[in-house]
């Protein structure tokens, strides 16, 4: 039988293929490697595996630049390897969620190769081509990866739009042929048996009529197009059309990556009526530690306060309740490691405690939790010391723009900020054991390992019953067993919105109450909450509960 809304009490595990497990010694993770590790993923207890892009790609942006949507990147294997992965996953009861990157393609995609040939090529209109204005780009937009959002192409004397790298031209969603080509491709994967899609920057696909200039601050080289391209005027029409053509004909789960999405917009995207997506990734809780100067974006060493973080999570919990569905995440391949970011990785004791504390805060909320590879063992930021250690184009471009071109920061400061926020922090190879290259590969790895793999690895966590791994395993099991974690109404404990140090909230349903208490600090605190005598502690990162005394990073959940 097919359970309706099965994704509501599911937990997703994200695999970044290049960094998970190398099977042939070339230093790059691959599909046979992932297949080999599915038993491990099953042991954690998750329901769905989201694979970051595995398609044929020149890998300018690690696969988010797709050259062929129906072929596997040769470094990762071939289609038989994929079929094997899918088969084994299904045998284990795991679902496979594919990454769908359709705001843009690679410039090596055959649609773009055709498109750039001539103004009357049948694929011309698959992309966004415009004449320049007075020998300059058609508008003032900047790319999210620095530089302008337009590239001049000699062959036809026009510019094409690229919100990301120049090798990632934006598709023209105004063209119905583009839309139906995408739906056909999605159906092709669905017919193959995959179980869902994570949709890359899906809320950027509808561009504004006339492509007007965006507002630009005086110290910015280009204007940020995000306010104009996020949640554009035709976005809901496009997603409803996609839903009609694809999702409604298959039993699948969808999550849209949606930067700059508000709760009001999210209620449309992920409405329980099911006309568009099942849920979106919102970004507000990832923006709380950004730089106050917009020209510096997220490059900063500011810490997010609990007050801001809690206010944001609470806003999303309450605004969507009963109307739409939340995704819940601390990490992904674009974000620094949460234990370094919102937790404390300065000592082994605090690393373990704070990783569990953050997991507790997230996993008792309403929504579908996403775990990024390595999060379940508390992997930390790599904090590379030299620019040469970085691979991510956004990190390298940003360094050159901010330090060399704009002189907004000196080199050492920018390096410090890269150590805190670079996407490479998430992308270091998975730490399986304490042997050479952490058991990830026998060859030279495409991205440096985190130096701490001898202390932090899967083997060690599996051998210790108090490990972060087993804590995550328990959180997932509780979600599967207790409907209240899926259905319960979320509320902050009275007055907790003013507590700078402790996060305390409840979930309530006809099954009773859950009270979640989490100390966000390394201080020992004293707090009194109303807890009936018959309350049972269902999970904690400390043994021997001490009641009103809440120890550093202590997290505990009572049921009554
Ligand atoms: O990320 C989109 C992304 O990084 C956004 O956060 C964007 O940079 C932001 O809106 C700017 O304010 C996705 C993928 O997750 C990422 O790995 C890709 O590099 C990117 O799209 C392009 O495909
Ligand atoms: Ca390999």
From TrEMBL:
InterPro entries: GH, GH13_cat_dom, Glyco_hydro_b, O16G_dom_2. It holds the Pfam family Alpha-amylase. Residues 14-427 form the Glycosyl hydrolase family 13 catalytic domain. GO terms for molecular function: alpha-amylase activity. CDD domains: AmyAc_SI_OligoGlu_DGase. GO terms for biological process: oligosaccharide catabolic process. Keywords: Glycosidase, Hydrolase. Belongs to the glycosyl hydrolase 13 family. PANTHER family: ALPHA-AMYLASE FAMILY MEMBER (PTHR10357), OLIGO-1,6-GLUCOSIDASE 1 (PTHR10357:SF184). This is Glucohydrolase.
């Amino acid at each position: 039988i097919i359970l309706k809304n099965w994704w509501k009490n599911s937990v997703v595990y994200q695999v970044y293929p290049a960094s998970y497990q190398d099977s042939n010694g070339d230093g790059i993770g691959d599909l046979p490697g992932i297949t080999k590790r599915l038993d491990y993923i099953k042991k954690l207890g998750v329901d769905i595996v989201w694979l970051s892009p595995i398609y044929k790609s020149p890998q300018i942006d690690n696969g988010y630049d797709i050259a062929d949507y129906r072929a596997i990147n040769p470094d990762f294997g071939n289609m038989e390897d994929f079929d094997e992965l899918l088969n084994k996953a299904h045998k284990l009861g795991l679902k496979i969620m594919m990454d769908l990157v359709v705001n843009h393609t690679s410039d090596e995609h055959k649609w773009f190769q055709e498109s750039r040939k001539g103004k009357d090529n049948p694929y011309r209109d698959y992309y966004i081509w415009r004449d320049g204005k007075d020998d300059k780009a058609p508008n003032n937009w900047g790319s999210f990866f620095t530089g302008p959002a337009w590239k001049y192409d000699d062959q036809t004397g026009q510019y094409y739009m690229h919100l990301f790298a120049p090798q990632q031209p934006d598709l023209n969603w105004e063209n119905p042929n583009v839309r139906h080509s995408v739906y056909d491709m999605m159906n092709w994967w669905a017919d193959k048996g995959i179980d869902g899609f994570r949709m890359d920057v899906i809320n950027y696909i509808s561009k504004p009529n006339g492509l007007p200039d965006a507002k630009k601050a005086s110290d910015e080289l280009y204007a940020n197009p995000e306010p104009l391209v996020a949640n554009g005027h035709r976005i809901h029409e496009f997603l409803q059309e996609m839903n009609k053509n694809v999702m409604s004909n298959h039993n699948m789960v969808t999550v849209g990556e949606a930067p700059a999405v508000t709760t009001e917009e999210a209620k449309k995207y992920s409405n329980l009526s099911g006309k568009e997506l099942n849920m979106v990734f919102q970004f507000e809780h990832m923006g709380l530690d950004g730089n106050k100067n917009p020209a510096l974006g997220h490059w900063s060493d500011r810490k997010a306060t609990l007050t801001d973080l809690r206010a944001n999570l609470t806003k999303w919990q309450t605004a969507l309740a009963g109307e739409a569905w939340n995704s819940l995440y601390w990490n992904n391949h674009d974000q620094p490691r949460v234990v370094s970011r919102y937790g404390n990785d300065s000592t082994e004791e605090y690393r373990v405690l704070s990783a569990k504390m953050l997991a507790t805060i997230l996993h008792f909320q309403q929504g579908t939790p996403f775990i990024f590879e390595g999060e379940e063992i508390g992997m930390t930021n790599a904090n590379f010391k030299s620019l040469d250690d970085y691979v991510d184009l956004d990190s390298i471009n940003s360094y050159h723009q901010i330090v060399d071109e704009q002189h907004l920061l000196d080199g050492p400061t920018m390096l410090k900020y890269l150590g805190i926020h670079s996407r490479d922090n998430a992308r270091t190879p998975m730490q399986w054991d304490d042997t050479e290259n952490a058991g990830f590969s026998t060859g030279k790895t495409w991205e440096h390992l985190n130096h701490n793999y001898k202390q932090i690895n899967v083997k060690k966590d599996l051998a210790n019953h108090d490990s972060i791994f087993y804590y995550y395993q328990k959180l997932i099991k509780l979600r599967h067993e207790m409907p209240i974690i899926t259905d319960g109404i979320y509320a902050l404990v009275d007055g907790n919105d003013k507590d700078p140090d402790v996060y305390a909230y409840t979930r309530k349903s006809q099954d009773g109450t859950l009270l979640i208490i989490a100390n966000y600090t390394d201080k020992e605190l004293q707090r009194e909450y109303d807890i009936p005598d018959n309350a049972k502690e269902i999970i904690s990162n400390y043994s021997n509960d001490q009641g009103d005394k809440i120890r550093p990073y202590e997290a505990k959940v009572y049921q009554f």
